[in-house]
């Protein structure tokens, strides 16, 4: 009798936790490469590359019919002393990754659905198109000399086929395939 109560008290909550809580996203498979913020023809340009380690797991997920969505957000923030910080500009980039079983190729839709690129070699596709991603962060003239600014870059790779209502109902569930990355850069305009 005591052993049954022990099982109910200890193992039942553990079993429920394993069944109902999501597995943690995998180890840091996605990393940032060559983050550069510069002035090009009077515009603030953010350039960075992404490296993806252990692509076999991602290829398997894609070949099982799951579409992935790489979503990145960059915010340019003016730091202020007494007042709250102010977001000067925010820019987003997204790439959709898919597997086409008929053609046996991996497909990537580039930002704003400009065009679709295909390749049988997933590593080559990722390396080619994630080597350098650029974002226009606005006019350089909006930066005040002597002011400190903050750049925040967040990138995630998630399942694309999850409806919005399900994301809201199951808010505690992680839909990430790869752990998201978060980078911050503080700079001073001379």
Essential attributes:
190 residues, alpha+beta, Immunoglobulin-like, 6-stranded antiparallel beta sheet, 3-stranded antiparallel beta sheet, 23% helix
Topology:
Layout: H1 2-20, E1 30-40, E2 43-52, H2 55-63, E3 68-78, E4 86-100, E5 105-109, E6 116-119, H3 122-130, E7 133-139, E8 148-159, H4 164-169, E9 176-188
Antiparallel strand pairs: 1-2, 2-7, 3-4, 3-8, 4-5, 5-6, 8-9
Radius of gyration: 21 Å
* Shape descriptor: elongated
- Counting structural domains, the number is 1
Unreliable stretches, pLDDT < 50, 5 or more residues? Answer: 11-27
Give the H and E element order: HEEHEEEEHEEHE
The CATH architecture: Sandwich
The amount of beta strand, in percent, is: over 45%
- The level of helicity is 10-25%
Largest sheet: 6 strands, antiparallel
Quaternary form: single chain
| CATH homologous group name | Immunoglobulins
Give the distance, in angstroms, between the N- and C-terminal Cα atoms.
75 Å
Please write the CATH class name: Mainly Beta
- The average pLDDT is 81
CATH topology: Immunoglobulin-like
Protein structure class? alpha+beta
Could you tell me the number of beta strands? 9
Strand order of the largest sheet: 6-5-4-3-8-9
* Number of helical segments with 4 or more residues: 4
């Amino acid at each position: 009798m005591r052993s049954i109560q022990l099982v109910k008290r200890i193992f039942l909550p553990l079993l429920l936790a394993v069944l109902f809580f999501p597995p943690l996203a995998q180890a840091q498979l996605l990393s940032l490469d060559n983050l550069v913020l510069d002035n090009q023809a009077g515009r603030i340009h953010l350039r960075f590359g992404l490296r993806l380690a252990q692509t076999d797991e991602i290829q398997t997920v894609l070949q099982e019919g799951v579409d992935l969505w790489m979503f990145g957000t960059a915010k340019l923030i003016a730091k202020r002393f007494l007042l709250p910080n102010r977001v000067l500009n925010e820019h987003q980039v997204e790439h959709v990754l898919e597997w086409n079983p008929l053609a046996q190729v991996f497909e990537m839709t580039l930002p704003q659905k400009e065009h679709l690129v295909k390749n049988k070699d997933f590593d080559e596709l990722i390396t080619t198109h994630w080597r350098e991603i650029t974002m226009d962060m606005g006019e350089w003239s909006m930066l005040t000399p002597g002011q400190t600014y903050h750049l925040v870059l967040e990138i995630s790779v998630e399942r694309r086929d999850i409806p919005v209502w399900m994301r809201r109902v199951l808010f505690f569930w992680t839909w990430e395939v790869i752990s998201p990355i978060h980078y911050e850069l503080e700079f001073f305009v001379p």
